[in-house]
């Protein structure tokens, strides 16, 4: 029995394993819950396309969720959920490398060495880290591991000697830090151990939540998950925020920034229907109910094949395990080769003396 | 050919390997140079005694010298120098475990996980770290790895599940931090993965430098090294500071706090001679020259067997390598067993699902 196919063209790509020809991409996600439509629009859609051309390392960064230290069950569960979602959307685990970060403990080893040539101020001045730490402090305390996570991300990228890292504009400083640390290490030991990765800047879309909030997230309870069933989607869409200035269906409404139309644009392939709805909405000639019913239908149609594949893998856990095992094992081999280069450059092969 | 024996009683101890009966001790040194008389009085003397009763893990902490990031040659060289000095003073590598920290990369792995349950404030408030960081900042910048080193020391201690850590009074807060982190981890995962180590508080003597400075150290150029030859020792002792208030040999002198007498007390086993010198010194009846000549003779007599053993091992690098290899390999096995316990407690054996 084979899973329902949703990646017909991935078999066109060269087989993984050797990976000598394709350029390498490193990207990943923190295991903090199942994936939602925001992840799809913001990342997965891109990855599905990129996996054909590049050798992709997809990382489940379980070392980097120390802000969930009090809810470790969730971390554990989420590793599996993320893998299921990736399989469901069609990331091919035989053509890319599903990697559980902690199954490649060389990440911790490389982070330690890189920390020698990373001034503390580089982390302290990181604006993203700063604001995340302020949030964490407000809720309790910041774990040491959290403070170190940006450096671990640098190690994640350098470990497979990734050429490219898909990012949005806002993450460019992070790639700059990676390049800087790679440069320092190479200069110090006078050889190019690490290529300086380039950012693959794309339009990284951010999907608003069902409540119109800037970010879809589990904690805000404004997310539609890739694994949500039809009824759940219908219910969530019914509860969506629309145009707050519009009180009656006969009032002229606003389409710009209106969550239901943002979602229509993202998930309803029937552009005629979407344009018709928009025109009637602006003219006050359609109610929220119809707009939402059509949206729910579109989202369900979009999710149906994903759900079907997810159901398949849920009932075939051995294939999920195999995907994680194959990818993590391969990534560990790559990591061990990189660490051999690192030790060679640093001449820390003390016993070879 | 066997090395000159200086540890006749170490063969009385039970063989290493199983290590099931003897309590475990973890201690170590940072590889920043060859060892000197200060190391001997402050640590080695104790270790030589402890190795008979305990299973000792002697760590060469090469992950923790990031303050020497600009002088990595020295780090590399010092790993070897430390091993030679240990062998020379009679730490038995077949009864204890000479461990190069980075050859057991599990130290980095455990540090990462422990960082989840260590609040940043615990490091930020560490008074020793604070003052060391201030010194480093004055000279340049603090590496991230340096900021993390106290947590790595916790990992060093917990890795072999050490029962005891030899410390001086001033290091008790460090052991308290280790106990606290062990407790947090055990509580979190509801099992005793890590025993809480006890401090083995001893009189940890600190030998003043030849210039009377509180600390003997290479950077202050006030150290007598265990590997110094006779001429070097004679010369260093000739240049030692004595009683600054005494201008002529006929002036009454002070013995208390006088470096030459501190050294006499530490290294001259002929107490009659030492008492005679002290009496005449106080009475203004002996010159610095005689006091120093007798001191140089005593130190050289103390160092002679150490030098002899060192020469042996310098011409038998394969035995040095074997000591480091056997110990590091054994320590890595111990580390892997501990990490298996850690993963088991955390249930991060994702693929076993």
In what order do the strands lie side by side in the largest sheet of chain A?
A: 1-2-3
Count of folded domains of chain A: 2
Note the quaternary state here.
Answer: homodimer
- C-alpha-based Rg of chain A, rounded: 22 Å
Shape, per Cα inertia axes of chain A: elongated
Within the CATH hierarchy, at the fold level, what is the topology of the largest domain in chain A? Rossmann fold
What's the main sheet of chain A like? 3 strands, parallel
> Helix-strand pattern of chain A, N to C?
EHEHEHHHHEHEHHHHH
Strands, helices and their partners?
The structure is a homodimer of 353-residue chains.
Chain A: E1 24-29, H1 37-53, E2 55-60, H2 72-89, E3 97-100, H3 106-114, H4 120-124, H5 127-139, H6 144-158, E4 164-167, H7 172-189, E5 198-201, H8 230-238, H9 259-267, H10 271-282, H11 288-314, H12 317-346
Parallel strand pairs in A: 1-2, 2-3, 4-5
């Amino acid at each position: 029995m084979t899973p329902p196919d949703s990646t017909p063209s991935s078999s066109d790509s060269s087989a993984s394993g050797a990976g000598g020809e394709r350029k390498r991409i490193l990207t990943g996600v923190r295991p903090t819950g199942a994936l939602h439509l925001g992840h799809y629009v913001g990342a997965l859609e891109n990855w599905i396309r990129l996996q054909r051309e590049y050798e992709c390392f997809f990382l489940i960064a379980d070392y980097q969720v120390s802000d969930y230290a009090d809810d470790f069950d969730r971390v554990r569960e989420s590793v599996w959920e993320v893998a299921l979602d990736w399989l469901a959307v069609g990331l091919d685990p035989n053509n890319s490398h599903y990697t559980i970060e902690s199954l490649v403990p060389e990440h911790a080893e490389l982070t330690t060495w890189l920390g020698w040539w990373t001034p503390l101020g580089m982390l302290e001045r990181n604006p993203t880290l700063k604001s995340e730490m302020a949030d964490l402090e407000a809720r309790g305390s910041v774990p040491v591991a959290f403070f170190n996570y940006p450096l671990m991300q640098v190690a994640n990228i350098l470990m497979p000697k990734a050429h490219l890292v898909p990012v949005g504009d806002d993450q460019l400083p992070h790639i700059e830090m990676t390049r800087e640390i790679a440069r320092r290490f190479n200069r110090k030991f006078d050889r190019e151990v690490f290529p300086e990765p380039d950012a693959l800047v794309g339009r990284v879309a951010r999907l608003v939540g069902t409540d119109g909030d800037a970010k879809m997230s589990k904690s805000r309870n404004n997310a539609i998950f890739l694994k949500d069933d039809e009824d759940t989607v219908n219910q969530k869409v019914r509860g969506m925020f629309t145009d707050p200035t519009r009180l009656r269906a006969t009032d002229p409404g606003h389409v710009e920034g209106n969550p239901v139309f943002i979602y229509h644009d993202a998930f309803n392939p029937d552009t005629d229907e979407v344009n018709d709805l928009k025109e009637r909405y602006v003219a006050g000639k359609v109610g929220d109910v119809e707009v939402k019913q059509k949206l729910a239908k579109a989202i369900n149609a979009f999710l149906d094949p994903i759900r079907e594949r997810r159901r398949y893998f849920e009932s075939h856990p051995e294939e999920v395990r195999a995907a994680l095992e194959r990818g993590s094992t391969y990534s560990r081999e790559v990591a061990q080769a990189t660490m051999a280069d690192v030790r060679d450059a640093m001449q820390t092969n003390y016993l070879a003396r």
